[in-house]
Design a protein that fits this description.
Layout (H helix, E strand, L loop, with lengths): L1 E2 L10 H10 L15 H10 L6 E4 L4 H5 L2 H9 L5 E5 L4 H7 L3 E6 H6 L1 H15 L3 H11 L14 H4 L5 H7 L1 H5 L17 H14 L3 E5 L2 H13 L5 E5 L4 H10 L2 E5 L2 E3 L4 E3 L3 H10 L5 E5 L6 E2 L2 H10 L3 E5 L10 H4 L3 H4 L3 E5 H4 L7 E5 L6 H11 L6 H36 L6 E2 L2 H7 L9 E2 L3 E5 L7 H11 L6 E2 L3 E5 L6 H16 L26 H6 L2 E5 L13 E3 L14 H11 L4 E3 L5 E5 L2
Parallel strand pairs: 1-2, 2-3, 3-4, 6-7, 6-10, 10-12, 12-13
Antiparallel strand pairs: 5-14, 8-9, 11-16, 13-14, 15-17, 17-19, 18-19, 20-23, 21-22
Helix pairs in contact: 2-4, 8-12, 8-21, 12-21, 13-14, 13-20, 15-16, 21-24
Length: 623
């Protein structure tokens, strides 16, 4: 907590504060007063101390910067989630709070002098509200009560596993708490996920407050489902939707389900590294100008490799034509919580719909996802119908609880965790600069790869560490085997020339040191690996998508399977998606060309998984 004080009537000593905390029976809360006398001092304190949870400013001391709200704007630009309180003489209260909507509360100096406990209780109550976990708290309390279960699930708190001679090892591995907390939706007090009631509803409302959106929803089967829910809510048959071709396959499937007409922005590929850039803003604006009747724009806010679109430009231009904007921000759930990222945050940019895979880079269980909505025209009733179509009536409560506590961490220490991670990356890059053959790619490399990088103000998330291994003389398979089997490092993604390492909220400095140690061995050649030639680069581009019909018509039409090599001129009836990076080469309704087959053949030497290709055959529409 930052307290700015020059007047003796303000609380000024740690000892007095501790006595107040004791009176309030909150001795577990560690509060500290720090004096600041300028805007720069306040920002410096916030940057240096991620544990600061409130700012209390004196009107008398900082009058000028408070009068024009500059100090409040500076604080909020660093730590959006931190509440700001202002003290002053009673008669200036209305004037102060009318100057900025970002002030949490005003305290009169007379009230502070006569009843300091009530003022501190107000601040501490705000702290409690921010750190609350409505679902997790109620869920944990109910689970430990160990009530007799006369409802689903059938294992009844783990009894069927525990008492079995054959499967009790399953129980022993996960432990008692895992099973007693696997509950039925029959527990009314915890609420309904489909209806958003009781503890679940309160938890979702807190998420909306933390992310500063109108509505937030929990999804327990991944952002793939979150994406489909949004698309089916917004699109009807034949509706035009402008889409980044590089979107996750769930977006393409969602468009098929909605029977919409996709207008695909081109993939921009760097063949040396196999990296895809965001689509160019010039092409996007041209698409909007030519299709002002489009209902929606769908973009990936942060690519797999960490490239970031300047979404404010997109949103502002789209909204001129009343086109909604939906951003899949699966890999960037922390974008609001650090000033280095906020410029590229979809929510900060004003996007109407945003999805976050809370399990990918922040602290939630796999398949846990958020949907955030800021659309002023949001049709909540229809959304709930689509939500009910996709949501299980027996959701996994562990996932819901993880979404609840994930929000708390982002709210209370998101800035601190991200700041530490960024410092770890900075140190890692300084050390890696000593390598002779391995390089860490950075913004300058991306600027050289993509001609629109600077013009479009594309950014990069340094927590997606992209490592250039093209100068090593070992095959991908040998490098992967070494990292996994000999060093115990599981890498997020390989291409023919790169490794992608994600530094998530679970990242620790010791893990980075181990990664550095493994790369150092590879760089120095101190490994027992077979040397072999490697593919130098991919084909220069992915063929553009040209649709012969609506994707849904092809997908739901009569299909047959034919050998890939004999499919030229036929209409694809399924997605063909190489992994990595998961960018569709073919979508339903697209005419297959020789160029597509050549591209797939070029990928075959990398031993990639190609989803939709079955033993060399693909599905096409019957003639």
């Amino acid at each position: 907590m930052i307290i700015d004080h020059n007047k003796p009537r303000l609380i000024t000593t740690q000892q007095y504060l501790q006595s107040v905390v004791s009176v309030l029976d909150r001795s577990d809360l560690s509060l500290e007063f720090l004096a600041v006398n300028s805007e720069s001092a306040a920002v410096t304190e916030l940057d240096n101390d991620g544990d600061i949870q409130a700012v209390l400013l004196s009107w008398e001391t900082l009058g000028d910067s408070l009068r024009d709200s500059s100090i409040i704007d500076a604080i909020k630009s660093r730590r959006l989630e931190v509440p700001v309180y202002v003290t002053g003489e009673n008669e200036v209260g209305f004037d102060i709070v009318s100057r900025s909507s970002k002030i949490e509360a005003f305290f009169a100096l007379h009230d502070i002098a006569s009843d300091p406990e009530s003022c501190l209780a107000y601040i501490i109550n705000d702290f409690d509200d921010r750190s609350e976990t409505p679902f997790w708290t109620a869920y944990k309390k109910y689970a430990v009560e160990t009530n007799d279960s006369w409802h689903t699930p059938g294992h009844s708190g783990g009894a069927s596993f525990r008492s079995s001679s054959y499967i009790n090892d399953f129980y022993k591995f996960f432990g008692r708490n895992m099973f007693i907390s696997d509950l039925s939706v029959s527990v009314d007090s915890l609420g309904s996920l489909s209806d958003g009631t009781n503890a679940i509803g309160k938890a979702q409302n807190l998420v909306a407050n933390t992310f500063e959106v109108k509505h937030s929803y929990f999804v327990t089967n991944g952002s793939s489902t979150s994406n489909k829910i949004i698309l089916q809510t917004l699109l009807r048959e034949g509706d035009k939707v402008i889409i980044d071709r590089n979107c996750h396959k769930s977006v393409h499937y969602g468009i098929v389900q909605a029977r919409a007409l996709p207008l695909y922005l081109d993939s921009i590929l760097d063949p040396k590294y196999g990296i895809f850039a965001p689509p160019s803003l010039s092409q996007l604006k041209a698409f909007i100008s030519d299709n002002k009747d489009a209902k929606l724009i769908v973009l990936t806010g942060c690519t797999y490799d960490g490239l970031l679109t300047d979404l404010k430009q997109v949103v502002d231009y789209a909204h001129q034509f009343d086109i909604k904007v939906f951003i899949d921000e699966a890999w960037f759930a922390y974008s609001l919580f650090h000033p280095q990222y906020r410029e590229y945050s979809a929510i900060n940019a004003g996007a109407d719909y945003v999805t976050h895979s809370a399990h990918k880079v922040v602290s939630a269980f796999s398949q846990a996802s958020y949907i955030h909505i800021n659309d002023p025209d949001f049709d909540k009733d229809f959304f709930k119908e689509i939500y009910a179509i996709h949501t299980s009536t027996s959701p996994q409560y562990h996932l819901i609880a993880s979404l609840d506590v994930c929000r708390k961490q982002l709210e209370m220490e998101g800035f601190k965790v991200i700041n530490n991670l960024l410092n770890h990356v900075r140190e890692f890059k300084e050390q890696a600069a000593k390598f002779s053959r391995i390089r860490i790619l950075d913004k300058e490399d991306f600027r050289q790869m993509f001609s629109h990088f600077e013009a479009d103000n594309i950014g990069h998330d340094p927590l997606k560490i992209l490592i250039d291994i093209s100068a090593l003389s070992y095959s991908n398979q040998e490098i992967h085997r070494f990292l996994m089997d000999e060093v115990g490092l599981e890498i997020e993604k390989f291409t023919h020339s790169t490794l992608l390492v994600l530094l998530t909220f679970g990242g620790m400095r010791s893990k980075i040191v181990r990664l550095y140690n493994a790369l150092n061995k590879l760089d120095a050649g101190h490994v027992s690996l077979r040397k072999s030639s490697r593919q130098k680069e991919l084909p220069s581009k992915i063929p553009p998508i040209s649709l012969a019909m609506l994707p849904s018509d092809a997908f739901f039409g009569k299909r047959e399977m034919v050998p890939l090599q004999n499919s030229v001129g036929r209409i694809a009836a399924a997605l063909i998606t190489p992994y990595p990076p998961g960018i569709p080469l073919l979508v339903p309704g697209q005419t297959i060309e020789a160029e597509h087959i050549n591209y797939l053949n070029a990928l075959s030497s990398q031993k990639l998984t190609i989803q939709g290709l079955i033993d060399g055959d693909i599905y096409v529409l019957e003639k």
